[in-house]
Amino acid sequence: MKIVDWKTFVDMPENTLFSKWEPCVFGELCIKGESLGNPPIDFYVQYISDPVDFDNSSDYVDMCHAAAQNGDSLPIDLDCVQRDALFDQDQLFAVWEQDDVKLLIERLQRCVKE
User: Fold this and answer.
1) Distances from the Cα of 49 to the Cαs of 6, 8, 41, 68, in angstroms?
2) Cα(66)–Cα(89) distance, integer angstroms
3) Residue 66: which domain range?
4) What is the mean pLDDT of residues 63-86?
């Protein structure tokens, strides 16, 4: 894993695994999407920790309540990106390198029950 500045990060390719980072604090694990603008002024992001698939905010609230109250399963969408839209060019990023991603995949494989 390496820590990079905003300029370095927005020049990285789509599907880069990362967290926003401030000294010794790692943010939510995300997947980088396309950078926007030339030069880049923003980027798309896929949040991994809350990938609930929903059509509108009312549906989302209803689905979450049903999951909490009835044990309903929440559908997920791991290909749904949104704009980051924070525009903080002082932000640092913890970027996962290829070997780190492979280790994560190996660890996640142990979560799959046969």
Assistant:
1) 22, 24, 25, 17
2) 39
3) 2-109
4) 92
